[in-house]
Amino acid sequence: MDDEALTGRSDNRETPPASGGSGAASGRHRRRPGRVPTRSFRRRAVVIMGVIATMVAVAVLTYGVSVQPGAAIVKLAFEAGAEPPPAPGSMVAVRDATVTVGVPVAVSGAPTAALDIYRPAQPTSSPLPVVLWVHGGGFIANSSWMVSDYAARLAASGYVVASLDYSLAPRSRYPTPVRQADAAFAFLRDHAAEYGGDSAAFFLGGDSAGAQIASETAVVETDPAFASRVGITPSLAAGQLRGVVLFCGLYDMRTVGQTGFPALRTFLWSYTGRRDYLRYDRIEELSTTGTASAAYPATFIAVGDADPFEPQAIELTSALRDRGVDVTTEFWTGSGRDLPHEYQFDVDADAGRTTFAHTLDFLARHRGETGGR
C-alpha cells in the first residue's frame, strides 16, 4: 500500500485483544479456585499456540524474501501488554499534566501524523518551550502513547511536550517519519500558543529508533543543503531549535551492525526496504555521524553501560564535538551498573532519576529567554 493511502493513526495502532477470561459458572458447574481450566479453554489455548507456532514457522521460511512476517512478530513482542491510548481528540490527565490526544498533523507527500500534546496541569504566566519527542520501537512498533508517563513528567517540569505518532515501517518507509517530524514542527510553530507554548523555542528528543529519526530531523532543520537532499523544506528558522535530547539511539549505519543489537536487520530492512540495508541508495542520509554540520544544535546524549548501542552514542559524541557542537553526555561506562537499553524511562530508579534531572538541567541551560516556571 502506498504511503499516501495511509492517513491518521490507523497504521500505528492495534486494537487490543478481548480478555480471555470468563465469568463464574453457576450450579454444579461452578469452577473452584485453583481448579485446572476447562477442556474447552485448554482446546482454545492449544489452537492459539498452534497459530503462533505457524506464524513463527512462516516467518522463518519467508524471511529471505520478505520482511513482513518477521516484522509482525517483533511488533507483537514490542507491544505486548501495552496500554491502549485514549481516543483521538480526548483530553486526559497524566500525572501533573494535561494531554490533548491525537491532534492531526497534515504532511505533504506522506500520511497524516498525530501529536499527543502535554502541558502542565497548572497554567503558567509565560509561554513555555516546546519539546517534540519521537518514540522508539525499531521503526516498526509502538506509538506516541508509549512515552506518556515520561512526557507528562517533562511537561510538569515546565514544558509543552508533543509526542509524535508517526507512520510505521514496513508499510511506511524512510523518509516518511522525518517528513512527519518536520511537519510536526510546522504545526507547532503555528499553533504552539494555543497550548501555552513558545513558537520561538523548540527542543527535539527521541529514544532508540526515535533517536535516529530525531537526530536526522535536527540536521534537516539546521542544514538547508541536507534538507534539500532529503527533499524537505525546513519548518524552523535558524535559532528556533535550541537543543536535541537523544537516548540510546543508532547514528552510524556503517558500524551499527557490529553492535549485535537484536533484530537490527529486521528493523533496518523494514525502514529502508532493502534486506542488505547498506546497499540502500540513501543509507548515508541515516548516519547523523556523517551528516551533522557545525550548525547542529546543542545535544544531550544518554546511554546505558549494558546497552548494545553504547558505541553508537560514543561515535556521535565524537563526531559532533569534532565539528564544534556543544555536547553533554550521560554515559555509565565502567560503572558496573548494567543499565539496559531504555533505562532512561525508569525514572523511579536511581540511574533513571539522575538522567532525568540532568536532562532538565540541559533543557534549562538552553531554553534561552523563554519564560515559564
Descriptive report:
It contains 10 helices and 9 strands. The chain has a 9-stranded mixed β-sheet, sandwiched between helices. α1 crosses α2 (68-79), α4 (176-191) crosses α5 (209-222) and α5 crosses α6 (224-230). It is α/β, with parallel strands linked by helices and 373 residues long. The radius of gyration is 22 Å and the shape is globular. The protein has helices spanning 39-62, 68-79, 148-156, 176-191, 209-222, 224-230, 264-272, 288-291, 310-322, 350-366, and strands at residues 91-94, 97-105, 113-120, 128-134, 160-165, 197-207, 241-247, 298-303, 327-331. β8, α9 (310-322) and β9 (327-331) form a beta-alpha-beta unit.
Looking at this protein, list some descriptive labels.
Rossmann fold, nine-stranded mixed beta sheet, 17% strand, disordered C terminus, 373 residues
Compact overview of the structure:
The chain has 373 residues and is of the alpha/beta class. Helix content is 34%, strand content 17%.
Poorly predicted runs are 1-42, 44-53, 369-373
The largest sheet has its strands arranged as 1-2-3-5-4-6-7-8-9
CATH architecture: 3-Layer(aba) Sandwich
This entry's quaternary arrangement is single chain
Kindly state the percentage of residues in helix: 25-40%
The end-to-end distance, rounded to whole angstroms, is 46 Å
Main β-sheet description: 9 strands, mixed
Counted beta strands: 9
- The radius of gyration is 22 Å
**What would you call the shape?**
globular
What's the rounded overall pLDDT mean?
86
For this structure, the CATH topology is: Rossmann fold
Q: Secondary-structure element order, as H and E?
A: HHEEEEHEHEHHEHHEHEH
* CATH class label: Alpha Beta
The overall number of domains is 1
Q: Helix count? A: 10
Q: Can you say what the CATH homologous superfamily is?
A: Alpha/Beta hydrolase fold, catalytic domain
